[in-house]
Each structure stands twice: as C-alpha cells, then as structure tokens.
Amino acid sequence: MPDLAQNFVQLVIPATTGYALLHAAAEMLLVPLLDARRVAALSVGDRIDLGEKLSSTLHSLHVGIGALWLLLAKDGPWSNDTLHPYPDSARHLLADHAGYTLYDLLVMLAKPRESGSMWAHHLLGAAGALAMLYYKQAAYFPVAFLATELTVPVVNALWMFDRFGGGNRRSRLVLVGLRALAYVLFRLLAGPLISVYAIKHHQPLPGMVANSTMELPATRTFASARWQSFWAAFCLFPMPVWLGCTFNLVVFSGLNVLWTHAAMRAFLRELGRGRHGKRH
C-alpha cells in the first residue's frame, strides 16, 4: 500500500491536475478562437466536452504511442515473459492513465448524461490501472489495452467537425471512414491479439507450474501445452490480479467490438447518403 500511495501522490494526482489545467487552458485560449455563435448553441454536455478535447487527445497520443513502443520494440520488456516484467515506463503510463481517467470521470459527472458503456470503460480502466500500481504483476495486459486509445484523436476530430466544420459532406465522409478504420485497426481484435501475444511469449519461471495447485488435462499439442502453462502461472498471482485482468479483458474486448460495429455502421450510412445525394 505505501507504494500505491506514493505513486498516487507523485504521479496520479499530478496527472489529474495536469489534464485539468489543459482543460482550463483550452477554455481560455482555444475556445475563444471558435465561432462564438456555434459555441453558444452547444448543448450543456457538448459545451463541457469542448474543453476536454485537448486533454483527451494529448492523453491518447501519450499512452497509445507509449504502449505501442513497449509492445513493438525489439527485445521489449514482454518479448519473453508477459506476466512478470514491470518496467518503470509501464508504471508511468498506468499512473498517467489513472490520473487522466479520474479527471475525465469528474468531467462526466458534470454532464447531464453519459453512456453506460463509457462509465464502464472509465471505471474499470481506472480500477485496473490503480490495481497494477499496487500489485505490479501482469502489467502487460492494461498497458497493451492503452494502445486502443489511439482511436481518440480521429473521434475528437469528427466531433469538432460536426459542430464547427461547415458541413462539407465529403470531408465528413473521410472523417467517418477514418474513425471506422481506426476502430478496426486498434480496437476490433485488440482482445484476441493481446491474449495470443501473451500466451505465445509466455516463458514460465522454473518451478512455477510445479507449484500451481491447478489440475491440467493431458496436453496433446504444443499450443495447448503453452496455454495450460500460461494459465497455471497466471493463477499463481493474487486473485484480484488474475480475475481482474480476465474480467477487464472480456469487458473491454466486448466494448471494442460493439464500438467498432457502431463505427462501421455509421460509415456505411454516411457512404449511402453520399451515393443518394449524387443520384439527386
């Protein structure tokens, strides 16, 4: 617990404060540059969201690129073991994500309404990041999911275009298409890919499987043996770690599929409108 408290004071709270200051800076310096009539016409929720777009974009680029760097770097921290390494860069990414999520939860509380899926995403994300700062085990999973945050910049760009962009249909079609592409690339298969990579690059420590209390069925293939070895080692962690990671993996994978489906449907609708407009 002292480590969690130290991380919370030294990293999480400064991150929350920093993103709140970015929000205030956007309100003071950037919002006045927009069309005042359109700003005044925004709904209460959209008006609150307007100042949040700078913070969310910078956060997504920071943690998304940072996560990809750790995952794709040659001889990265999880290239030979996806369960035990806890690099300091992962600690900082998780603390930044926890700090941002706490800031964004306050923004969501100020709005009249917010979707249930967004509440689930934020609450589970904050809980998972804070839990990793305490347990320091299986950090690969929450860090890997941070790469999905790279869909946020194009989502924000489309949000801004719809409210301040002038209504050019072709430009909107491009943005809606880019959003769908981003969701397909970064979210649709994130859960399965993260799981396959974790099992493929798992190297059990000596004696770890022998110490497991789980009964494993007879293995017939190398793939099933590797999966059983991974699961046995995974379940040696404290229950909040392996159960929390599994729960978040399932929930986030489901949300990513639902959001990708919605983004693809929106793109197909926009494409259909464009074709219909040309015929008339």
UniProtKB/TrEMBL annotation:
Topology of this chain in the membrane: Multi-pass membrane protein
Source organism, top-level taxon: Eukaryota
GO CC, alphabetical: endoplasmic reticulum; membrane
UniProt-annotated location(s): Membrane
InterPro entries documented for this protein: TLC-dom, TLCD
Keyword Heme: no
An annotated GO BP: lipid homeostasis
Principal localisation: membrane
Alphabetized UniProt keyword annotations: Membrane, Transmembrane, Transmembrane helix
Segments passing through the bilayer: 141-161, 173-199, 230-259
Pfam families registered for this protein in UniProt: TRAM_LAG1_CLN8 (PF03798)
Domain TLC: 45-272
Family matches, as PANTHER family: CT120 PROTEIN, TOPOISOMERASE I DAMAGE AFFECTED PROTEIN 4
Stated name of the protein: TLC domain-containing protein
Annotated organism of origin: Thamnocephalis sphaerospora
